[in-house]
User: What shape does this take?
Amino acid sequence: MTVFPLVGTILRHHQQMHLMEMLKGHGLRFASLLRQEAYIGGKWVSASNGKLFPVTNPSTRKVIANVPDMDEVDTQAAIDAAYEAFQTWQRTTAKERSLLLRKWHNLMEEHKEDLALIMTAEAGKPLVEARGEIAYGSSFLEWYSEEARRIYGEVAQSPTNSKEMIFLRQPIGVTSMITPWNFPNAMITRKAAAALAAGCTCIIKPAEDTPLSGLAAVDLAEKAGFPPGVLNVVTASRKNTPAVGKLLCTSSKVAGISFTGSTAVGRHLYELCAHGIKRIGLELGGNAPFIVFNSANIKSAVEGLMVAKFRNTGQACISANRILVQEEIYDEFLEALKESVSKNLIVGDGFDKGVNQGPLINDSQLRKVENIVNESVAAGAKVVLGGKCLKKGSLFFEPTILSEVTEDMSCFQEEVFGPVISLKRFTTEEEALKIANSTDQGLASYFYSQDVSQVWRVARRLETGMVGINESLISAAEGAFGGVKQSGIGREGSKHGIDDFTYLKYLCIGVN
Ligand code: NAP
Assistant: This one.
């Protein structure tokens, strides 16, 4: 959106005041966290072209803020700042980096309610879930403040007495981070904390729909004392994003990129990175199977599915997408599920009390979910509950259950990314595994079984990077998050999250 400077300034001020008042009404304590400028080289800045783009609350569809619509000029400035900062940041001690991460974590904890309010305003995420995400996001800062001091090298056994062989683990350099809207805090901290712990500097490009959460988090990083240029945020609209992204992937000053988002965009960035042989970490889309075997505890499987499907209104990469239930228990499971969905889900504005299902993020996501449901129903799926947009013109979609689904339907072929459960019967373990693995995606899978031999057999054969067994809440800073097949490369979280941001340097020392 291009706005004339004076009109733009007045409009922006008005919207900023409105957002501030609205959030104060919900208990916001520190309005200074409502940053509406990007952050480059330790300064809060506008776009060099003076342009802005609007941020909308998906619950109300009202514009709540305007942030800089940056292009290659600003991106280059951020890369230069991060490159310069790297020259000194890489020489800080692990303890210094650890202490800064710990301070950032403490500030996030101190401001967790404000951060959650900002997230609910821009992402529509129910407040209860936004609080959960801030705790999750903040846990990466804590975890990597600890891991920073445990980045070890190795001494190898030399083949001769005249040499010593040592492997140092060193930071790769400037890293670009492109993050999605569905976890606008945690997808930033999960990458940045590991990179900073390793001694890298970062340029973060948050999603167009949710820049405010990233800016608020980085405001706290600045307060924690990270030196200028170590962390930078470039904000851009969907229109400018491809140009910004291209530079972030191709600049000779950038050593690597870490991306979370769709497989289509990930593939494109992978291609861009090929030319400069950049390090790349990709956390991409999923199409998670959720298998319930005859021996399962049905109550716990239903509870697990409620979490695996309806967390963030189904807008999570590890959302259960293809629900496979063994024949003998199918009817009982469906009945229990229907009851749970009808009783436990409350759709509405994320600020309203009791709400646990928010809106979809934008029109294009809503259309995608509607199309998948309509196509599947036209192909023979049965609507057990829901099935449509809650109110014409809104972004709220009814919690939906589709039964009698077949493998060829779009609800099984595509990642729905909405509150839609698609159920299919199966007969044998072999059949369930065949269906579960018949996809190019391989992020997460889940299954419920009380048969210990089956647990091992199935866990080993599922072609996914993560498997939840009688458990659906698998995300944690301590866990190795990531996919196989077209769901990604590399791992985030755990001690392995550091790997993408370091390389081994081999020293061979002659000993006379
Ligand atoms: P997306 O369209 O791929 O966007 C993700 C990020 O990439 C956004 O910041 C977006 O910016 C940016 N982007 C889009 N086109 C780009 C380009 N040509 N060059 C550079 N950057 C570009 O994905 P989404 O729809 O926001 O998120 C949903 C997808 O993310 C789902 O498939 C989900 O499974 C996946 N996801 C995966 C994980 C994981 O850990 N594996 C976690 C969360 C989400 P704009 O917003 O400006 O377009």
User: Anything to note?
Assistant: The domain at 74-284+492-500 is CATH 3.40.605.10 (Aldehyde Dehydrogenase; Chain A, domain 1). The two ends are 68 Å apart (CA to CA).
